[in-house]
Sequence to fold (536 residues):
Amino acid sequence: MTPVVLDVQHLSAGYGTQAIIEQINLQLTEKEIAVIVGPNGAGKSTLLKQIFGLNQHLGGDIRFNGTSIVDIKTSALVPLGISAVPQSSNVFPTLTVSENLEIGTYASPPADKKIARERMLALFPDLAGKLGQAAGELSGGQRQMVAIGRALMSEPTLLLLDEPTAGLSPVYLEKIFDLILQIRDTGVTILMVEQNARQALRIADTGYVLANGRHAHTGTGAELLANDDVRRAFLGGSAGQ
Amino acid sequence: MIEFINFYLIPGITLGSIYALGAVGISMIFGILRFAHFAHGDLMTVGAYGALTVVWVTGIPPLFAIPFAVALAIIAALSCDRLFYKPLRELPTIYTVIASFGVALILRSLIQVIWGTESQVYVKGFQKPLVYFDTFRIATRHVQIIASTVVITGLLHVFLSYSRMGRCMRAVADDASLARVAGIDTDNVIRWTWIIGAALAAIAGVFVGLDTDVHTNLGWNMLLPMFAAALLGGIGKPLGAITGGLIIGIVEECVSYPFFGEALLSPSYKSAVAFVIMIALLILRPQGLFKGRLL
Fold:
């Protein structure tokens, strides 16, 4: 049986005492790509932020490799093997690309820093010529690559991505989805929130549709794409499209 | 020209060096903790009196008393953070700004209780200036202050650019939330911000005592030009703050030089220079010379 990496049980979270998500359950096994989709305000990013301890926990449990991480502070999650890429402001703008990648190794040094860096540049060849440039000067797509690169430098087993294609041109959009598959193939489990739901569900092993902070549908990516209710309500199209 | 260099430019660079060292801490604290630390001048005073005690007790030259001054200011800064600022960290920053006013008063009052309200000097008597090329007459203390500031600036640059903690500090100044997500222990970064800020403030305090005298309002009186220096360099840009400090110090001293037969500004008005620079900057270039954080 494939080991469970992330197990979220009856999770409720929000801001202050205000719950944004309620009774959320999800389970990710090794090397799985899970995608959370849903309309704006459904609580997708809140769920991801809560796994990373950035919101107010109001109930339920989050277990990573069998251990509860609810009470562990955000900065201590990287050494456990969890890395995250927030939606916006995901690079340190005044630090160079090289320094951004270096920061990713501080909390949890990779087995060999040089090899980790070379592997990163093989994954993101566009960054090779920009290592000395301030990350804030890069295009949106390049910044996203720096952000994912920084998160991967610690060699995580679980990667959380919050809308990795937000605001990107179609060229970068394809590139990022391609990269996500490549990253999964290196053994990383990926949980991703995505607005481009159709493309995301195409690469997803499992999809979770959230609406008003609660589960609306769960299934494989293909099942959700084929589900008429999901297509009509959340993917902006009818059956057969 | 020689008169200008000896009596205006060198003292200006000296004063600017003192402002620069104080402004670095203000800029770093603003960049990382996001608040204007109004007790920073009083950390300078703590350092100056710490060194004074060592000089009184042991009789060693004031420069050798700097490690004790630094240690005392660091203890004061870390204690104030733990007792007064940390409990307010999650509230809007205006609470911490107001608290820092209170801390400034507490520190000054403690200094007055412990050391008294009289002005003191490290070394009594006249010190002969050093004479270079038979023309440049530079006071030994000015050489010491300027040379020390150059060395400290170099070390600070190396620390911020190449050390792990320096990079973490710049990362937290850029985006504290992302820094936490990236696994940076922000509490440790805050601790180091206080350590470096307080150490440089203490050194600046000893330099003021060395240049003039030690009194309980020593740091408080310097607060405005130091804030102006931090703004001029760009908030959150420590090396910018050093440049800002030097510019303000030099301009403050040089405006009273009789460039056109008469002084541009009476020396009694020179403290207004920092005000003018600060107001002009806030209107014309609020991000400062080095593109710092906007207030």
Observations:
- Chain A touches chain B through 28 residues (CB under 8 Å).
